[in-house]
Amino acid sequence: MTDSQAVKRGTARPVFLDFARIRFPVGAIASIAHRVSGVVLVAALPFAVFLLGRSLEGEEAFSAVLGSARSIPGRVVLLVVAWACAQHLFSGIRHLLMDVGIGSSLNAGRASAYAVLVAAALVSVGVLVL
Amino acid sequence: MRLFTGQSAFVAQRISALLLLACVAVVALRLAIGPSPTFAQWRAWAGQPLGGAVVLVLAGALFMHAWIGARDVLIDYVKPFALRLAVMTFVAAGLCVLAAWTAVIVATHAL
Amino acid sequence: MRFRIYRFDPDRDSKPRWQEYELDLHANDRMVLDALVRLKEQDDSIAFRRSCREGVCGSDGMNINGLNALACITPLAGISEPVTLAPLPSFPVIRDLIVDMTQFFAHYDAIKPYLVNEEPPPERERLQSPAERQRLDGLYECILCACCTSFCPSAWWNPEKFLGPAALLQARRFIVDSRDRAAPQRLEFLDDVYKLFRCRTIMNCTQVCPKGLNPAHAIERIKIDLLRHSS
Fold first, then answer.
1. For residues C3 and C35, is the Cβ–Cβ distance under 8 A?
2. For C195, which residue in chain B has the nearest alpha carbon?
3. Closest C-alpha among B69, C21, C227 to residue A91
4. Chain B contact for C224, CB < 8 A?
5. What pTM does this model have?
């Protein structure tokens, strides 16, 4: 059946894009983490600018900003933002290195993808603990 | 926004990334070594012209990097042209407002 | 061995479905393609493309247990069951495991996959030193099986405008060919938000290439060439 016949019949050709049945290599995971962390950071920007302003206002405001990071919701936000920063930073460095040819082979690319994901997880937990 | 087609966006994103990387490295080093900065130290540094200028340059790099990244995400996922134009305008405007706000903050505390 | 195969017959089905099969393997059934041929003896309606059965024609590219591969060189030994066979992702499905490759080949055509050289031809060949010929290694071997392009998320989101790893690898093949004279035009053609720069170096392409090629790296090199060219 030709394409135009299919269109007339109303049966457009389906596509296979079932994410449950497609395996994502570690490089793809690192890449989507880079993208998600980027979006989180952009969403956090208004908040960050607000905090910048507050932290410069006065002694009390400065301490309040630091103190809010110790409350429970503050710690959740801190964890998410710390992860987003670390993940985006590390996968960003990975991309910059690949731009100049470092780590472009399949094995190197896979190894660096694992390294980046693990390092970001460790740093975000570390920030929470400290 | 014909400003950033293909290669120029790629290069601008890389350059702003390097700038931000340098900044993060310096800040991380400063926080790791020595005592936590007090309000007075922070205010003093950000208040002087050099510190304020650094904050502004870094904010500029940050907003440019954020815009190019956001644009890439929107181009990939928002297909209808009119909707994409609307969302991009909203995001671009939002980033410009935040950049202006940052400039105001730095200016008021530098004086 | 158990199989789960993606089935779609436009004359019968309104939407695709999965069908399970059970197959007793013979001693000489070594590759997924061998199993498919025997499954077709069981159920004649299963449709798939195949030709050389040795991994050089690129006809039987498909998604095997979640990863794109050529069925004729994917061993059955150690494979996890049920062996799930699906068509190449994101390409329109004509029937069962057969997909429409029109868009894929259109992108290939767009990069002008032929030598452009207006100089009068020499008496015999346009000569190339061994070093110049070596620059084509890792680029010329592409069999256009589409495993890479159909596994690239950037190609999933922008199939009509992003050229995809296969076409871009071939673009590089001609850019570095010392006998070609159109490198500046080839590079200019690619300098565009969509054609080349949708690539995010996700590296799914390199992961699944059955010939062991590295389209991601080739694309990186094109980006660097573009930079050198404009400055």
1. yes
2. B6
3. B69
4. no
5. 0.91
CATH no., domain B7-110: 1.20.1300.10
Q: Which residues, 6 or more positions from B110, have their beta carbon under 8 angstroms from its beta carbon?
A: B46, B47, B48, B49, B52
DSSP tag of B72: H
Q: How many residues does chain A have?
A: 130
Q: Does domain C102-230 have CATH number 3.40.1010.20?
A: no
Token pair 């495991």 is found at C97
- Assess whether pLDDT exceeds 60 at residue C174: yes
Other C-beta atoms closer than 10 Å to the C-beta of C173 total 20
Using an 8 Å Cβ cutoff, are C184 and C222 in contact? no
Residues C141/C192, Cβ–Cβ less than 8 Å: no
Measured over the CA atoms of residue C63, residue C205, residue B14 and residue A34, the dihedral's sign is: positive
Q: Per-domain residue ranges for chain C?
A: 2-99, 102-230
- A22: contact with C, CB 8 A cutoff: yes
Answer yes or no: are the C-beta atoms of A102 and A127 closer than 8 Å. Answer: no
% chain C with pLDDT above 70: 100
Whether C223 contacts chain B with CB within 8 A? yes
**Stretch (H or E) spanning C28:** none
- C88 residue type, one letter: L
Q: What is the mean pLDDT of residues B52-69?
A: 90
- What token pair was written down for B79? 């297909």
Of C10, C90, C100, the CB nearest to A17: C90
pLDDT of res. C108: 98
What amino acid occupies position C140?
Y
For B:22-81, CB contacts with C below 8 A are 72, 75-77
- DSSP annotation of C62 reads E
Question: Per this entry, what is the length of chain B?
Answer: 111
**Residue range A27-129, CATH number:** 1.20.1300.10
Per CATH, the number for C2-99 is: 3.10.20.30
Tell me what pLDDT residue C184 has: 94
The closest of C140, C61, C144, C171 to C163, measured between CA atoms, is: C171
A72 by Cβ neighbours in 10 Å (0-12 / 13-18 / 19+) ranks as exposed
CB B63 within 8 A of CB B17: no
> Considering only CB atoms, which chain B residues are within 8 Å of A53?
101, 105
Q: What is the ipTM of this complex?
A: 0.91
End-to-end CA distance of chain C: give it in Å, rounded: 59
* Chain C partners within 8 Å of B6 (Cβ): 191-193, 195-197
Cβ(C58)–Cβ(C145) below 8 Å: yes
Cα–Cα distance, C90 to C95 (Å, whole number): 14
